[in-house]
């Protein structure tokens, strides 16, 4: 198995308010291997984007703090690095693309300059060389007539083209890890299909890892090797993509998959719903954070927060749910990653 | 033209026993493009270009297409929230684009709209009670007490806690706000509701709650929906029939199940194959369309889809295909529809 590129351990990210630290993510653990695509799925407010900003250490600028835990990248803890040190990693070794392609580009620079900028900055390329590399990059992401397009401004390009430019900027320095935060949410389905195909193709060519953040279970099913489901700041289930979709274990994952409409022959049927709504951060219930909405809630769920338990036959599918306590599974000590799994 | 008239009869023929509530005939909506100091009109954006369709009483008609295809404009022109450039919208036998002030005012009680954005579509300075009660105050001679009773009734119908009616919209979540918009839309017992991307902004778990609510209300109140959405999964779940739009044109209309099972238009096929399905390991062969949707100000000649169509032939760039019924209940605007087997198609 490929080497671990990024290992997030018990990461707690929060925002300091008058009432103290409000936790946006609560001791989450996740690892990404080389060449792997890991999807972080969940609904709005579940902490997906905060996690990605923390890995990039952009959370510092968003007013948040990394309160606890570590983000190990090549054995170094990114949580302890200074912003100066992060600048050499960001955009160079780890790159990020955002949801809205229009607003992540600078309207007063041509798209060619914006791609060349990161090459000049990180790869010490000269002006001309960087420009030519930028044009090549536009060609790589499938923009027709790249020489002409490079001299155009973002407003002259369509949404799908802008997202290709954003991908070109992100991949210009051939990063090892690409963090894509809802990269296709603002796009139409046919353009989304183009962009997802492009990401897959470039991943195969460059051998990079992708941390893909999405709320669309369909996108996750198509892109992911592994899927982590987030709910109210915690990863409630994590495992290989087939396990998550074929044998979902956490009641939240089960509910999420069941409430997707549009399956053949189910037209007009009443859709499954998860009762209630996601609690705001800072107002989490006692015990399991999902128990007020859970159809299987037991006494222990109201009192004690569940650990991660292994589910299924393998040793790489975990769920934080008391339902799996008395199954033939192993107890994870604390809310740890799979490294810390000890067979019970 | 004569073929078109008979066509209209054909399509409504089957529906004749059921009531047709909305009959859209050759509807066009062009927006002029102004340029220069004198704002000369230099062109037209053909947002809706010669669209004909019928909606039957009690059904949900789903309208799908990518952004900029004209589906929202069509919905708004059907409600006469915007005037039509040409064509007719017959609602219960009367052309609503020829109505005068008083008639139009009465019409507003019969037709309502639910908007996409649960944040932008509610006045932040109004109490929820006033938002839901406003149509009653405008259209009905009801006392304050009667309005309040009706508001409580409406809020309970859409699953809101009526004791919260004296609060402002910002105190509600996105899903709850969408329920407020729905309560406002059904306040006057309308017959016809346009739901313009009504669940698109919601998370999956909330979305399914609102879809269930819409289906329940339809059953209880006998509503007819025009359900506009780009989310094909939602449309598939809720619609009886589906219309597919591309660049201002309706390219295919059919019963939901048959259309999803075997699309006739290459664009429909591409659109359906582009939906990511929540089933890993079965990454099916996908038709990935190249390029972007052309500008509706300068649409391609002939078939508007020919520039991106994987099956385009010479004829497609010259002759515009008309929306025709090629098998019972299924209309398509394509010279070479994707018909299966012996039905006489090319493919």
From TrEMBL, chain A:
The keyword Translocase is assigned to this record: yes
Database matches in PROSITE patterns: ABC_TRANSPORTER_1, ABC_TRANSPORTER_2
Main subcellular location of this protein, as a coarse class: membrane
Superkingdom per UniProt: Bacteria
SMART domains: AAA
This protein's UniProt keywords: ATP-binding, Cell membrane, Ion transport, Membrane, Nickel, Nickel transport, Nucleotide-binding, Translocase, Transport
Enzymatic reactions: Ni(2+)(out) + ATP + H2O = Ni(2+)(in) + ADP + phosphate + H(+)
Topology versus the membrane: Peripheral membrane protein
GO terms of molecular function: ATP binding
Domain (ABC transporter): residue spans on this chain: 8-257
Localization of this protein: Cell membrane
Primary enzyme class: translocase
EC number annotated for this UniProt entry: 7.2.2.11
Pfam family, one: oligo_HPY
Subunit and partners: The complex is composed of two ATP-binding proteins (NikD and NikE), two transmembrane proteins (NikB and NikC) and a solute-binding protein (NikA).
NCBIfam families assigned: oligo_HPY
Family indicated by similarity: Belongs to the ABC transporter superfamily.
Name of the molecule in the record: Nickel import system ATP-binding protein NikD
Source organism of the structure: Paenibacillus vini
Taxonomic lineage: Bacteria, Bacillati, Bacillota, Bacilli, Bacillales
From TrEMBL, chain B:
Cross-referenced CDD domains: ABC_NikE_OppD_transporters (cd03257)
Pfam families: ABC_tran, oligo_HPY
Keywords recorded for this protein, A-Z: ATP-binding, Nucleotide-binding, Transport
PROSITE patterns on file: ABC_TRANSPORTER_1, ABC_TRANSPORTER_2
SMART domains: AAA
MF terms (GO), sorted A to Z: ATP binding
Keyword Transport: yes
InterPro entries in UniProt: AAA+_ATPase, ABC_transp_ATP-bind, ABC_transporter-like_ATP-bd, ABC_transporter-like_CS, Oligopep_ABC_C, P-loop_NTPase
Family as reported in the entry's similarity comment: Belongs to the ABC transporter superfamily.
Descriptive protein name: ABC transporter ATP-binding protein
Organism taxonomic ancestry: Bacteria, Bacillati, Bacillota, Bacilli, Bacillales
């Amino acid at each position: 198995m490929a080497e671990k590129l990024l290992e997030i351990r018990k990461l707690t990210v929060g925002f300091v308010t008058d009432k103290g630290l409000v936790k946006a993510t609560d001791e989450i653990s996740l690892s990404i291997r080389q060449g792997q695509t890991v999807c972080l799925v969940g609904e709005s407010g579940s902490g997906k984007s905060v996690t990605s900003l923390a890995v990039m250490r952009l959370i510092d600028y968003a007013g948040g703090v990394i309160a606890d835990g570590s983000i190990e990248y090549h054995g170094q803890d990114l949580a302890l690095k200074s912003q100066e040190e992060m600048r050499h990693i960001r955009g160079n070794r780890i790159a990020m693309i955002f949801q809205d392609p229009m607003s992540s580009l600078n309207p007063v620079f041509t798209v060619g300059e914006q791609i060349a900028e990161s090459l000049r900055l990180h790869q010490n390329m000269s002006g001309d060389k960087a420009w030519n590399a930028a044009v090549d990059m536009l060609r790589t992401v499938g923009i027709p007539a790249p020489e002409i397009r490079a001299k155009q401004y973002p407003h002259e390009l369509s949404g799908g083209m802008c997202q290709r430019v954003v991908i070109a900027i992100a991949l210009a320095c051939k990063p090892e890890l690409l963090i894509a935060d809802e990269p296709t949410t603002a796009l139409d389905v046919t353009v989304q299909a183009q962009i997802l195909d492009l990401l897959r193709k470039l991943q195969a060519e460059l051998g990079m890892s992708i941390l893909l953040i999405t709320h669309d279970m369909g996108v996750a099913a198509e892109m992911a090797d592994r899927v982590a489901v987030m709910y109210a700041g915690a990863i409630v289930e994590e495992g290989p993509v087939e396990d998550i979709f074929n044998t979902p274990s956490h009641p939240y994952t089960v509910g999420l998959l069941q409430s997707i409409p549009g399956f053949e022959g189910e037209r007009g049927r009443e859709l499954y719903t998860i009762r209630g709504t996601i609690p705001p951060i800072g107002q989490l219930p006692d015990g399991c954070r999902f128990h007020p909405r859970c159809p299987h809630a037991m006494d222990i769920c109201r009192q004690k927060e569940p650990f991660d338990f292994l589910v299924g036959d393998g040793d790489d599918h975990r769920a934080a749910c008391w339902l799996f306590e008395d199954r033939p599974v192993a107890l994870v000590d604390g809310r740890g990653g799979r490294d810390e799994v000890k067979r019970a | 033209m004569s073929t078109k008239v008979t066509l209209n009869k054909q399509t409504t023929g089957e529906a004749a026993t059921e009531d047709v509530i909305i009959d859209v005939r050759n509807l066009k909506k062009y927006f002029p493009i102004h340029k220069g100091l004198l704002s000369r009109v230099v062109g037209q954006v053909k947002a809706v270009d010669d669209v004909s369709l019928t909606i039957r009483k009690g059904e949900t008609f789903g309208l799908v297409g990518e952004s900029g295809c004209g589906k929202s404009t069509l919905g708004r022109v059907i409600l006469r929230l915007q005037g039509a450039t040409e064509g007719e919208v017959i609602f219960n036998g009367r052309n609503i684009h020829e109505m005068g002030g008083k008639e139009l005012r009465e019409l507003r009680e019969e037709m309502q709209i639910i908007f996409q954005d649960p944040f932008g579509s509610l006045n932040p300075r109004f109490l929820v009670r006033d938002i839901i009660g406003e149509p009653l105050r405008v259209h009905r001679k009801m006392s304050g007490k009667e309005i309040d009773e009706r508001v409580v009734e409406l809020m309970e119908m859409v699953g809101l806690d009526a004791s919260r009616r004296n609060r402002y919209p910002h105190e509600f979540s996105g899903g709850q706000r969408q329920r407020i918009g729905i309560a406002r839309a059904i306040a006057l017992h309308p017959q016809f509701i346009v739901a313009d991307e009504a669940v698109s902004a919601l998370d999956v778990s909330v979305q399914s709650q609102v879809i269930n609510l819409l289906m329940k209300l339809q059953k209880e109140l006998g509503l007819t929906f025009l359900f506009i959405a780009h989310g094909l999964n939602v449309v598939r779940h809720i619609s009886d029939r589906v219309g597919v739009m591309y660049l201002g044109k309706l390219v295919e209309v059919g019963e939901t199940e048959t259309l999803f099972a075997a699309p006739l238009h290459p664009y429909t096929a591409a659109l359906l194959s582009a939906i990511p399905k929540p089933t890993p390991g079965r990454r099916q062969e996908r038709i990935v369309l190249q390029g972007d949707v052309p500008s509706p100000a300068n649409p391609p000649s002939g078939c508007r889809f020919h520039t991106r169509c994987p099956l385009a032939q010479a004829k497609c760039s010259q002759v515009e295909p008309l929306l025709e019924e090629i098998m019972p209940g299924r209309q398509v605007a394509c010279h070479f529809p994707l018909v299966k087997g012996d039905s006489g198609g090319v493919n």
